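Sample pair:
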Amino acid sequence: MADPDTHSLLQIFSGMVLAFFSRAITGVRPIWSGTVPSRKQRIYFANHTSHGDFILLSSSLPMGERARTRAVAGADYWNGNPLRRFIATRLLGTVLVERNWIERSEDPLLVMLRAIDSGQSLIFFPEGTRNMTEEPLLRFRAGLYHLAKARPDVELVPCWIENMSRVLPKGTFLPVPLLCRVIFGTPLQLQPDEERKAFLHRAQSALLTLSPQPQGE
């Protein structure tokens, strides 16, 4: 079994390789419209339409920030076979959470907080699953609120991922070369005594404002 340092080096190298290929295929351009790259610990929360979303977002971060940023993903999918498990745990260092609340063995919130407390930033998809509908966003689940409440000092940065659903549609393996952007918005914080529903609505609105497509048409 490889030691933790070996895993870290493997993940850093894998991140560099994936960043190179994602830039080559998509020409991904980060747009820092509401913030700038920072060494602060952050939770980047984004729209979710493709398995490639977290790779594109990660590739848009400076190398130092990318090295300590982990995506949160469903254990049910990534533990589905040995290859997926190897990619998620060894190559990408993904934070895997169990989404089935009946059968899960550990609270997903505790898994994410453990990653934050170890100094990692997170890439988080508050819709909880890929959006396969015509709506710009699915309803946000409560996870983002619980993270904000448990770790109020960690910045919450909305990120709109553009075009990735066309680069890597569901059910495909080979990406289609198309230009993509990741738009980083203004960080949010949970306000004192702010209720869950109000916070999630505010977070969803902040994400929607970053979409280059007009909403409500």
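Residues 46 and 159 are 5 Å apart (CA to CA).
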